[in-house]
Specification:
- With 255 residues, the protein is of the alpha/beta class.
- The protein has a single domain, classed as P-loop containing nucleotide triphosphate hydrolases (Rossmann fold, 3-Layer(aba) Sandwich), CATH 3.40.50.
- It contains nine helices and ten strands.
- A six-stranded mixed sheet has the order 6-7-8-3-9-10.
- 38% of the residues are buried.
């Protein structure tokens, strides 16, 4: 299962305007882990994710996916292994219909037509979007676009799922569906989110980025109890861990 491992060593990224977005970022994520990368706006979270399958090139440092360093030669294979769901689904949907968007990836893998159709139907079913297959993406709501964008990645059967703010734009029902879907995905999951209650439900491990640096990497339950650390990184506890201002109890009803 080494192809499910993500290793980042001393990663640095400087944008053309001189912004130092990532500074000496290192971590290792092993098979089956569900890891949230959290931080305030501008911490470098999206920039980091865009490196994990080669959408951005590091200014310095190294990324390995399984046994392979990420470079120009290994990029096609790594993009088959690492499925990326962007924060804005409009960056991911570009075909005339939903069905064509979801089939684009499998077709480019050279899969036979029957297998492509099976994958498309399965991916749309999993995100509860089968009824949208003949619609144009630009006619969809924001939440529908998000579900279809996820389906475009699931149809590729990735070993590693990377998602940037996956619950953005979702109503409570769609959010709960997404959490259930992510629970079912048994391989490696890496995502950024401001939805810290979702993080607590899905992740045993959290990495905090602050101004492009790793400030903490450890068990979610421990990190979310460290109020001094959270305050320094401009974060708060998940709502479920915050006390009620009226009755003084926690979200779960515990004193």
């Amino acid at each position: 299962m080494s192809h499910h491992i993500v290793e980042v060593k001393h990663l640095r990224h400087v944008y053309p305007d001189g912004t130092d977005a990532l500074r000496d970022v290192s971590f290792r994520i092993t098979h089956g882990e569900s890891v949230a990368i959290i931080g305030a706006n501008g911490a470098g979270k999206s920039t980091l994710l865009l490196h994990l399958n080669g959408y951005l090139i590091p200014s310095a440092g190294e990324i390995r996916i399984g046994d392979f360093p990420l470079n120009r030669e290994t990029l096609p294979e790594i993009r088959r292994t690492v499925g990326m769901v962007f924060q804005d689904p409009d960056d991911q949907l570009f075909m005339p219909t939903v069905r064509e968007d979801v089939s684009f990836g499998p077709l480019n893998l050279g899969l036979p037509g029957e297998e492509v159709e099976r994958r498309v139907a399965d991916a749309l079913r999993r995100v509860d979007a089968a009824h949208l297959q003949d619609k144009a993406p630009y006619h969809l709501s924001g939440g529908e676009k998000k579900r279809v964008a996820i389906a475009t990645v699931l149809s590729m059967s990735p070993d590693i799922l990377v998602m940037d703010e996956p619950t953005n734009g979702l109503d409570p029902y769609a959010r709960r569906q997404l959490i259930g879907l992510l629970r079912e995905f048994r391989h490696t999951k890496i995502f950024t989110s401001h939805d810290l209650d979702m993080v607590m439900e899905l992740c045993e491990r959290v990495i905090i980025l602050h101004r492009g640096e790793v400030m903490a990497d450890g068990p979610a339950a421990e990190i979310f109890q460290d109020e001094e650390l959270l305050a320094a990184c401009h974060l708060e506890k998940p709502l479920s861990m915050q006390g009620c201002p009226r009755c003084g109890t926690y979200g779960g009803g515990r004193p």
